[in-house]
Amino acid sequence: QVQLVESGGGLVQAGGSLRLSCAASGRTFSRYSMGWFLQAPGKKREFVATVSWSYRTYYADSVKGRFTVSRDNAKNTVSLQMDSLKPEDTAVYYCAAMLRRDYTGGDYSTGALYDYWGQGTQVTVSS
Predict the structure, then answer these.
(1) What is the largest CA-CA distance in the chain?
(2) Residues 52, 19, 24, 37: is their CA dihedral positive or negative?
(3) Strand, helix or coil at 113?
(4) Which residues contact 44 (CB under 8 A, 6 or more apart)?
């Protein structure tokens, strides 16, 4: 069982920045690929970014150049630095853990690949 706890959400003006963090339980965090997803009211969950167990990073086109995902295996945390925020980034942001290490598909945007999810943290960007 892996527990994930997000933090760092809040209210920010358009053009501002926020840094989300996700703390994971367990002694094998370094073996997980860690993703971030968002869900806006009335919309489906969307992929944001992933950092694989091998430190490869993947981003949704909508956040490339604005968001940066990173991990610290010593602290069992994954972070999402969000810059140049837009009102359309407003959503609940979730971190997720993928346990399998043999995935070679190259597309980490499918939620079904992830085994554990956090409770989410609200990000609101005002115009």
Answers:
(1) 42
(2) negative
(3) helix
(4) none
Q: What is the pLDDT along the chain (127 residues), one digit of tens a residue?
A: 899 999 999 999 999 999 999 999 988 999 999 999 999 999 999 999 999 999 999 999 999 999 999 999 999 999 999 999 999 999 999 999 999 888 888 889 999 999 999 999 999 999 9
Question: What CA–CA distance (Å, rounded) separates 42 from 106?
Answer: 29
CA-to-CA distance for 26 and 64, rounded, in angstroms? 30
Q: Are 67 and 123 in contact (CB under 8 A)?
A: no
Return the CA Rg of the chain: 14
Torsion sign over Cα 85, 93, 80, 66: negative
Q: Are strands 46-51 and 57-59 parallel, antiparallel or unpaired?
A: antiparallel
User: Residue 24 corresponds to which tokens in the numbers above?
Assistant: 């994971």
**CA angle 118–99–30, rounded 5-degree value:** 90
CA angle 15, 19, 23 (to 5 degrees): 160
